Amino acid sequence: MAKNDAINKRILRELSRDGRISNLELADRVGLSPSACLRRVQELEREGVISGYKAVLNREAMGIGFVTYIGVGLGEHTKEAQEAFERAMQAAPEVVECHNITGTIEYLLRVECADLPSYKRFHTDILGTSPYVTSITTYVVMGSPKDMRA
After folding, report:
1. What pLDDT does 147 receive?
2. Domain range for residue 36?
3. Whole-number CA gyration radius for the chain
4. CB burial class (10 A; 0-12, 13-18, 19+) of residue 109?
5. Other CB atoms within 10 A of residue 28 CB
6. Which residue, among 79, 78, 77, 132, has the nearest Cα to 104 in the 3D structure?
7. Residue 136 · residue 127 · CB < 8 Å
């Protein structure tokens, strides 16, 4: 198992900030030789601590100007209801995150659309047609002063 020491934590922090950083630069930032740094990164990858690298996308440049978080409550708490809802969310390209959560509702979604009319279509045509959905609470993102997702 990969060490959970201060150096590995620094490596992970730097790679989270910039997954395309060169091994030479990474080694310099964390205070290791390039070969020792590469061995640690490869161990973190092999152990599954680093499961992949992603591009950070500019949502506005892609035409996404409307982001919401949506709390969804289901009327039935059966496996069938959950699986049907999750299949519908998998098929909806607007849904970029779907989390089954605890509390007063069953799901928290992150939905990204071009604009308010396209969100309304998603709300009506996808969420509104699900036979299991009984409550929808939408939170519109006005800004994201901190967002550590890749």
Report:
1. 86
2. 6-46
3. 20
4. buried
5. 14
6. 77
7. yes
Q: Are residues 34 and 86 in the same domain?
A: no
Q: pLDDT at position 54, please? A: 86
Entry field: residues in the chain: 150
pLDDT of residue 13: 94
Distances, alpha carbon 73 to alpha carbons 56, 113, 127, 137, 138, in Å: 31, 21, 11, 9, 12
Alpha helix stretches (DSSP H) within 6-144: 6-17, 23-30, 34-46, 79-91, 116-125
The C-alpha angle 88, 108, 96, rounded to 5 degrees, equals 60
The CATH number linked to 12 is 1.10.10.10
β-strand 107-113 against 133-140: which pairing, if any? unpaired
Q: Give the residue ranges of the chain where pLDDT is below 50.
A: none
C-alpha closest to that of 75 among 66, 85, 65: 85
CATH number for 78 = 3.30.70.920
**28 and 76 part of one domain:** no
